[in-house]
Structures are given as C-alpha cells and as structure tokens.
Design a protein that fits this description.
The structure is a single chain. This protein is mostly beta strands. Strands 2, 4, 5, 6, 9, 10 and 11 form a seven-stranded mixed β-sheet that branches. Strands 1-3-8-7 form a four-stranded antiparallel β-sheet, with no helix packed on it. Strand 7 and strand 8 form a beta hairpin. The protein is globular, with a radius of gyration of 13 Å.
Length: 118
Amino acid sequence: VQLQASGGGLVQAGGSLRLSCVASGRTFSSYNMGWFRQPPGEEREFVGDITRGGRSTYFLDSVKGRFIISRDNAKNTAYLQMNNLKPEDTAVYYCAGRMPGTAEYAYWGQGTLVTVSS
C-alpha cells in the first residue's frame, strides 16, 4: 500500500488543522494506521494510532484531548484532527500502516510539515 499525507501548513497557536492520509489499493481497511511526528532537530515520536475497526489510542500525553485520530475505510483515508495547536506541535507529521499482530509499521507516507506560530 502507498500512503500520501497532506494537510500541513502554517497556523497560529490555538488554531486547528486536519491532516489526511490517503492510501492506494483496496486493502486499507486491513491495516492499523499510525501517526508520527518529528520536531525540528529531534527524534521521531509516535503520536497514536487507530485500529482497523476505528479504535484510537494516543501515545503522547501532550496531544491527549487535543488531537483526534479517525479513519474512513470507504475513502481509504486516515485523519489526524489537531486542535488548540501549540508551537511545540511544530513537526513533520507522518502516517504509517501496519498489519494487525505485527509491531513494525511497514508502510509510510512522505510526511507533511505543520508549523505553529506563537
């Protein structure tokens, strides 16, 4: 499966953005989808993921209550809704897919840059 992330941009603190991750192929519904981010000069970090059935988990405490992960299997798309953005959310955001029962995200999108100004 090939993944294409989009929706990044420049936003003021307190604003919102919704990132999309469109998958090619007909097997999108078979994958758990994850979102990662890499702030400037830092390591990539795991934001959270959503199962095939739509159950989402947020790994980063800093995004809980502000970010929402969802998916529309009919549109082969996963979403990351980001609300009340903060300058520390500035990062390149990546979507990735993995098969249930595996630990590795085998499929990655190209990343989309989110910049939050103060």
